[in-house]
Amino acid sequence: MANDQTERFVSNIVPEGPITSLRVLVSGQAEQHREHRYGSRFPQLFWVFFGQSWVPLPLHFFLVEHREGLVLFDTGIDPAITRSKTYIRQAIGRFLLPRIFRLHLEETDRIDHVLAGAGVAASDIRMAVISHLHFDHVGGIAQIPQAELLVSDREWAILSEPHPERDWILREHIEIPSAKWRQISFAPTDDPLFDGFDGIHDVAGDGSMVLLPTPGHTPGSISMLIRQAGWAPILLVGDLTYDAALLEQETVPGTGDRETLLASFAKVRRLKEKLPGLEIVASHDFAAEDAVARATGHATNKGKGVAP
Ligand SMILES: [Zn+2]
């Protein structure tokens, strides 16, 4: 839990329930093509090479302070990707990366530095839920070797398919000896709240962090529903959308499987109908911090992730 004894005491007496804080952390800034974020009539390779309009995006990950330990949702990017010429093993990947993302990273954007800035030691992280295996979501796993890494079995299966690196799933930074991966499958539920989803996975067994399959961006992408007494419910959706407003408008991004994305969008919208006030929080959405602040009633101290 938090390093600071005073903070821990204060946190524990505020809300009832297993979660005491949710922090939005930033692992650097980047730019992407407008067509990537907002969708395009043209195929991906067209805008990768000919797109002229770049838009900024933040690289977020999330820290949940749960009674049983600190849980991350994703782990950010490793800034070594811009420093090391061999971070991406395949030449085609090294060629394509700057044509898809302009990365603006500092050494301090690595997860251990970001967590330290939030007053948390990387060695105190107990678990990380990985929304999907893209390099900008698994970039911190080497810094948290003690943590259990939860990934959907469907997402993990991509590693056995030909050329996962062509979809920006870099095996050499995922299958590292120190990583404690645990594949999860989704169990059926008769809770009508989750009608339409192909099962759920209750991370802590108390309903406070429920994983839901939300494929489309990648085949095994997952979202995490956070419920805590006194807060509005929050759905961390990873890269299902780059912007929560676009999901509500049924605008799919320029990457991923369009039909699967639309089906997942519909499930999320149905969930929101049943959970009024649900805040949908996307990893690359500048609105993420405000949405979490609205739901939790705490200022998140933009970009710094300081505890409420
Ligand atoms: Zn992604």
Question: How would you sum up this structure, described in words?
Answer:
It is built from eleven helices and twelve strands. It is of the alpha/beta class and 308 residues long. The strands form two sheets. A seven-stranded mixed sheet has the order 4-1-2-3-5-6-7. It has one domain (5-296): 4-Layer Sandwich (Metallo-beta-lactamase, Chain A), CATH 3.60.15.10. Mean pLDDT is 90; it is low at 1-14 and 301-308. It has helices at 5-13, 34-38, 44-50, 80-83, 91-100, 111-117, 135-138, 153-157, 244-248, 258-274, 288-296, and strands at 19-33, 54-66, 69-73, 101-104, 125-129, 148-152, 180-184, 201-202, 209-213, 222-226, 234-238, 279-282. It is globular, with a radius of gyration of 18 Å. The longest helix has 17 residues, at 258-274. It binds zinc ion. Residues 132, 134, 217, 239 line the site of zinc ion (ZN).
